[in-house]
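Appendix B. Extra example for self-study. Work through it before the problem class; the solution is given directly after the inputs so you can check yourself.
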Amino acid sequence: MSSMNYFNVEKEIKNIKKQLHYSFDVTDRILKKEDVIIGFIYLKSFTDNLIFSTAIYQPIADLKEEISFTSVKNIVQANDVKEIKKEEVIDNILKGAVVLFLNNSSKILSIDIQKFNARAPSEPPTTPVIQGPREGFTEDIKTNLGLLRKRFYSKDLVLKNLTIGRHTKTQIVIAYLDGIVDMKIVKEVERKLKKIDVDGVVDSYYLVPYLSNRPNSLFKQVGNTEKPDIVCAKLLEGRVAIIVDNTPIVLTLPFVLLEELQNTNDYYTNYLYSSLLRFIRIIGGLFAVLGPGIYIALQLFHYNIMPLKYLITIADSTQQIPFTPFIEILFISLLFQILYEVSLRLPSYLGLATSIVGALILGDTGVKAGLISPPAVIVVAIAKIALYTIPEQAAQITVLQFVFLLIGASLGLLGLIGGLIYVISYLNSIENFGSPYLAPFSPFILTDNKDGLFRVPWTSMRERPYSFKTNNHTRVGE
Amino acid sequence: MMARDESVNIWQASIMVFIIIFANKVLLLPSLFYKDVKVEGIICYLILFLLEIGLLFLFIALKNKYPNTSFSDLIKQKFGIVTMKIIYFLFILFFICKLVLIYNVTYIFFKDLIYKENNTVLFLVCFLPIMNYLAFMGLRIFGRTCQLFFPLIFILALFCVIISFVGIKSTPLFFQANIGEVLLSSLKHISAFGDVIFLFIFMDKIEFKRGDGKKLFFFSLLSMLMIVLVAIAFYFSYTYTSFMHQYALFEVLGNIKDYGGLGRIDVIAVILIIFISYFQMALYLKCFTESFYVLLPKLHKQYSLIAFNIIFVLIVELLIRNLERTILYGENILPYISIISFVIVPLCVTIFLCLNKRGERWKK
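Solution. Structure tokens for the complete assembly:
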């Protein structure tokens, strides 16, 4: 190669700094040894100075033999040392690599010694378990991939890398088990992700609308979890996982509503007990959605079908209330929602104070002052607590709760049942990656119902779900 | 992607058959039969159910011969396009008239028992959007929705049937009406039957294999059995005052006070009736839109819904608002329209099957 192609190190470094708008953390070092000039450029915010000195700078400075691209490449003490093209330089620097130029070579070396203070895997606050693994994903994608690899000593675990976001250039990994997953789903996921042209991906939720077939819908169409054991189970079922850098939330596809009724604890405890819990979750979810609406419908329209004893109790406790039943329930619901929002954002040491203010002062005093009635407080309180039997659907249930409250107050029982039929038929119209949203209930799939409303023992769950397409349905061998 | 495929599997079709047969035969009908023929009303049920089973049998036979052909195509092939258009016009008439009847029975029931206010707008606001939505979204979504609610509907219906026997107090007198009266009463209320006609409308959209007819038969017989049991429990609960109690299913449960510490259980009947009314009306509307589309294929399906809403609101608002007029309408006008389900369609199907058999013999 002619010397014409060799780098003018100072000029190259100046050029890169210019491209990076002379940001303060762009650092360069020049090492002159005999006739050879070696230029290093990196981001000091991403690179540990000590590692840079001991693993790169010092070994090169102490190099006895003639300095060349090969000798430098061999002497550097880092795992990821690679030759890169000139147009990849900026990307590599931005991803935390030290880029090295030599004035006697036309090649560029990228050395990855990125050091970032990542959080250690800990139990995610959103998915606590009684028994079972407590590890959770972190914001660091490498840690997350490690957590996944640790669970699959299998050559069939495939991890495909993508970069999305014009400015953030966020690393995204599609994970699946080859031989189990339906490759059409993988290709469709890949196609949808590659089509995304957005300035940045700050969290995995940014990808959700692009992966949903009905992005404007209230209902969740992509699964998410913070736990590697859940991702592992879903991959084993034949699903695809999407791991996004800088977020502990991993997305899974295809998604069916049943997944929200299933809880990790279900699989680490007795199957009969977990079946009972699932049933309670459904009851809880239904009560959360319909409870306040039914109460208001009975009070406003259908008091004549209420049993006499209940009617007397309710009439006794509501006759002094200055508000209409609808305003009363709406007021208590809004009050609860305000307290919830406040408790989320307030520092934890103020949480107790909020609870006292909410429960004792506002609730108890409100009842004693005759502004709200005890039955209304009980109904709203149970509905709001029941909402968290399916915490993953809390947002959807909260919206539906208010919608059904309005329907109950304006149309009564007839409207409530009509609304329920509407919601269910709407959910039935959603299909994601070929899987019906309400499967395996409608359409009814017998084998999938072994892990549906109730759960059978592991030994009886011999097949993978049929709710979505997979390549291999056999789960348990003969 | 939205699931808008129009086909349903045999289970979903069977569930629809169950719901449509059960709906609205357990409210006014037992009382009306009693008024005419006393306890022999049960025989009226059996006679009319035989006709319904006959219709079902013809559907299965037709489906076995022509698994993927629509009913409109069959009529067009054998009788020509004009006959097909006339039959489908009659279908439209049949479905809208039945819908008006069902809507009015439901309306009067709810107004009398749980709403107490004569608010037609409220009922239209409840029913029309849901019916339109279900009809617009396609048969597959409709079938899946029925399938999801079926366990609940079935459990509620079974509960009502079993519990209704708890309220039995005495035995009514049998053989008070002669066969002529029984036949006349059956004819008078024939319009409440013939619901399985919807299967012919969706003939090409039902995934059907040989032997699947058993499932259809099973669900329809189950539904019929439950209706007859409700009627028996009703007659045995109220005996000689049965004609005064208009809403059988509700009344048999209301007759039982505080069963097993459950408190008032007639609410269960109300919930059941609401569910089945929604599904029955939506299915009839779906049949209406399908027939409309066959009649005027160049028009978009939305126009059929617009046409339906206008006609329906006009009929409901102008013609019928009270029980007497509804009964009058059901007993005097609708039986003539039922000719479509109990004469024309069976006749057409029999001709197809006979011609087909003759054709096969010729080939041999």
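Self-check: The radius of gyration of chain A is 30 Å. If your reasoning did not lead you there, revisit section 3.
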